[in-house]
Description:
This protein is of the alpha+beta class. The chain has 29 helices and 35 strands.
Amino acid sequence: MSSYIPVIGLEIHAELLTQSKVFCTCSAEFGGSPNSRCCPVCTGMPGTLPVINQKAVEYAVKAGMALGCDISKFSSFDRKNYFYPDLPKAYQISELYYPLCLEGKVAIDTPNGQKYIRINHIHLEEDAGKLVHDDFNGVSLADYNRCGIPLIEIVTEPDISSAEEAKAFVEKVSLLLQYAGVCDCKMEQGSLRCDVNISLMRPEDTQFGTRAEIKNLNSLKAITRAINYEIKRQSRLLDAGKRVIQETRRFNDNKGETTSMRSKENAHDYRYFPEPDILQVNLTDEMLDVIRGMLPELPQKRMERYTKQYGLPENDAQIIVNQKRVSDFYDAAVEAYPQPKSIANFVIVELLRRVNLGEVTMEALPFSAQEFAQLVQMADTEQVSKNDAKKILRKMIETGKDAKTIAEESGMLIANDTSKAEAVIAEILAKQADAVAQYQSGEKKVFGFLMGQCTKELRGVCTPAAMKEILEKKLSEATLVSGTSEAAADSEETVKETEVSCTPYVNEAAYRPERKDGILQISTDQLLSEFDFSEAADHVGEEITIRACVHKIRKMSEFAFIILRTGRYLIQTLYAPAQCKDSIDGLREGNFVLARGVVKQNEKAVGGVEVQLSALQLISGSNEDYPLKVSNKKLGCSLDVNLDNRSVALRNVYERAIFKVQEGVVGGFREFMLKEGFTEIHTPKIVAQGAEGGANIFHLEYFDKPAFLNQSPQFYKQTAVAFFDRVFEIAPVYRAEKHATSRHINEYIGLDFEMGYIDSMYDVMAMETAMLRYVMEYLKEHYAYELDLLQADVPVIKEIPCVTLLEAKEILGNKGSKNKLDLEPEDEVAICEYAKETFGSDFIFVTHFPSSKPPFYAMNSREDPRLAYKFDLLFRGLEITSGGQRIHNYQEQLEKMHAQGLDPEDFKYYLEAHKYGLPPHGGLGIGLERLVMKLLGLSNVRQASMFPRDINRLLP
């Protein structure tokens, strides 16, 4: 396969940003009610005549100039005769013989340096309309709003050699068109689409191979994957001694494959002839000069300005230039506050981070570039701290208020009152005499702690720089306070001792395997046990031993409280030098220790007991202090900071308790399933096709074959019903949904079950109701400690109300969304409020969704085939379950696949279960993280995922 050279050419279709269509005066704006932006001309009525849109010609010329083309002073239109179902004239007005733009070139960056891709020509034509599929009624309707939108087609020479080069070229063309102001290049809206022509040749060949064309690729990812697949497909054919057929192919995004549509047409197949109703286009030198003068500064010129005039690093400049809206915003901000480096840093590090997290879009910023510049200026001039400036930006996004107003309202505005700062810092140092002594004894790390204390007390009083200067001055003037500690009396030598003064851990009773015939034998006679709080509570007056982590240290004058954290509990210990021979000098939060002592009653301590220490040995130390306040009841930091420091954040008892409750949900689910006779199964996560289909599927390369991460264990669950009757699985599932919301993650734990011999989907719903009731009782019995810590509101489940989708829409009335085929997030919240107010239930089932929508395995209603036996379960305003009755009849499943445009041959292994017989069955899938999120009242599903994966996060 590596012996072939790919030869690739592109045809890029870009809709022009004119106000009206290319041959009539109808609005060219995207969207609108169906057929509200069309007229007799664009619907091809007899007797109508097209009139060329001068602005469309102007924009096409601008595009050609931006792409380095020669502009033809003479061009004309031709009729391309071809039946378009959504183009009523049955021909398209285009340019074949005399296009507007010729012989351009665009530079792209490749691993081997810069490469020029030649453009054969650019021609102007009209776009087609679109078909709107009414899935509920099973009909297709024509919407002519897009019909007649001006479109340019950019045709390259076959200069592209790989998928990566094709992607780079489309990105570069998109950027140039946006800067030229002629196209918004929104591929998701269809304003930029691409056809790929690809063939293979051997290095010794003098002619290109036979090409195939892949039509209508509407994303960069699809372009890349389609090209890579087609290279492999053609290589296999040639390796097998077969020939490549010249044809038009479509790309199946779900399968990652191309399939044949029709034999490839040539120009004569379209029976082109000159358009008789439109005069030729004649351009003069003066007209071209005027159009050229309208071209704005293009990306390369901006790069030069940013790097040479502003002194930005090339990478930073490229990030800004790569998005025109960002670049325009940046320029406006620099004009308001001429500090380009400061503005660039805040745009890249803070603003674009908020954009990438989905908190805001550049198109919908609630503040101006001038207001953003004011914020950067306030941070630069220390009117607010750098950290507060980040918080202010988020408030600006949330509220739309300007930076100064937010700073004043939040007390973040710094007055720079140095005299007050000196007095406050003096008080702080007097209170923190031990810390001062440690600092003067050489332990410079304590400066950060003191600085933190000053920052808390001096918010808005002075700048961090002034604060630091005063603190350093005060510390240099301070004298050691006698008697505060032995470390303060001794100096640097004692500091060295405190680093190693904790007694190291030694266990003389450690398990050592015995030998038999010279070979070690591992037995089970001496297993390490995990601490349970009952070991302390039930043994008051007795000595116990605990292995744990130091959670918090509170030093008093004669003793210290040391709170220890085990795998589940906190327990208070009391350290007094008279009772414990071991030193705690140098001990800090995060150290792992062995503690031994007598249990004493203390009503004020956690659980009513504490341990009077007699021994404390250091098992393992830590190199650095925690970056978060782990010992607080709650961390008090943003979710981003929490997730960025996950290995530390999960040491907080509140954060950790979330996952103990999650463990309880899983434990209760598994116990219930086993009691009800379900068999636990474990199914593959690397699969050949997705269970749900669509674009929200992760693609893999599996030994040179396309594969996917499984969206659910659906196919395997249904298959297993044939031999186990009822099955369940607890395992990760994957959805490639590009959402950055509080309710979406891309990898989550699915609680799935499938059961046979059902009479209807209500049997499945009844089983889920019983399961949820069991799980809630299981949690209250086994996880009361965590539920109390998290202040969880555990629902009492007796029965769950159930409405059809149609009934739900009727209940919501005008409060509901306009989506007739599904529930939008606001609908889910509103219908749950109805269930709570009317039935006192935190849950509600919604049933009978349209049968034309996925999944294809959902059984159609026998009463109304437009509906399917499918249900969702909503919990406190959020869908947590999707389930239903499945199709078990082989012929019925084939018909449903055909109805949804699927090829049964693609699912032959799945269909084998149907072919050889299945009992009537149904099942469901529950999102564990969503269930826990709503059970605990969390605001974001990421809080219920130990190491979440979302569109922006692949680490830790």
